[in-house]
Design a protein that fits this description.
Shape: rod-shaped
Number of domains: 3
Structural class: alpha+beta
Strand order of the largest sheet: 2-1-5-4-3
Number of strands: 5
Radius of gyration: 44 Å
CATH superfamily of the largest domain: Hypothetical protein af1432
Distance between the termini: 111 Å
Strand content: 5-15%
CATH architecture of the largest domain: Orthogonal Bundle
CATH topology of the largest domain: Hypothetical protein af1432
Amino acid sequence: MTKKPFSISKSIEDESLIRKFSVIFLVISLLPTLVLFYFYTQLSGTGSIQVSVKSLNFALTFIVLGVLLGYGTMRRIIKNLIDLVTSNKKILERILSPQKLKEMGSSKNEISILTHSFIAITSELEENVRELQLAKNTIYDVMNKVAKGMANMDQIETFLDLILETVTEAMSGQKGYIVRLELDSSFKIHSAHGVAQDINIDQLLSPDDITFIREVLKSKKVDIRTKDDVDWAQKFKSGIFELPFICAPLVKKDDILGVLIVSGRKMARDFDADEGDLMAHLAAQTAIAIENSRLNKDIEQTYFETISALALAVDAKDQYSRGHLDRVADCADKIGVRMGLEDNELKLLRDAARLHDLGKIGIPDDVLGKGSQLSVEEWVMMRKHPEIGESIIKPVRTLLPLCDLIRHHHEKLDGSGYPDGLKGNDVTPLVRIMAVADIYDAVTTDRSYRKKITPHEACNILRSMGSQLDQDVVDILAEIVEE
């Protein structure tokens, strides 16, 4: 093993300040002391000093060189210390407030300044550690909520509200927006966080906002603006953008979907590049979720239209029941509107009415089109159509709410219906409406085995069924018929 040559200067250079000072002190003070000690021994021994001029010159030269060496070394150490203080002050100017710098600058003692510098830097590092820990916890919280939202994509708007709320709070933003690009190339705020509930968000987008959003989408890059961005503030008289803000495009490949915005900030610090990267990542994931939801809706809408076509095909096979599905849907919708149902309930009612006899696709044509009363065996077979219809739509997640209406549209409140013999409150309100509308259309249209009756007579028949049907629903239908 080869040893490195020993270097006194290098060894001293690497030592601590106290070791350096001790060595220099010895160099400066020990040499004169030794010379004086030599003179003292000469004087005490002989009473006189026997020193040649040559020896004296040599001793004095040695002392002067030692003092100069010590002075130069000490000066270099002190200069390095002052340079360290100066560089620290320049760094601190970018970190500390002017007030703290003023307090630190009031001292002329470099050691004191350096001490304050270390204390300030240590405090700043501790604060950064706390912020990093908070950021870590925040990001974990964001991803946890995103994961929960991704697990339930049935309601994309609810998922987007969750994403926006979480991102805005994580960024310490004052307000947050998701602005979507519509099919007609216009822009609409689909989600807003931190906005007063009495404010109409549809009126918040200004022409300047839209201009800026188009620029961001064109660049497909995150745009960060600070509080000092005077040029931007003068150019845009904005409605939703409040400095500082961060705006990230919602883009999936070449599909432009909108922007994710965090506007204003609860803390003094501006948004930085790291937060911009986080926003870009979240915006990309949000865009994927939006696009996947759209594709799922397209697929499920296609499936719904396909099975609706099948149901209509079954409906059209029988000349007597042709148009039954549309008529039941129309009748149920009118009853629902009169009862004050919500829009989503009315849609559910209409969709179920269009599919309620879908299961008849599994019933033989000779049974469906029989011109006389069904036999016991045929009637047992016919009673299977609600279950068959349910089994057809059940694999589609978004059509699951229709299962109850399709399976139970022949149930009666007294338990005499089929296929499950439900009674009382087990029969849901929408099923009660469907049952009344279905029977009403059946008796007011011609069948192969009987003639139709008038709407007034039909209402009387429905009333005569008493506890089998919801008579409140029957009364509403009668009001509609009599108008």
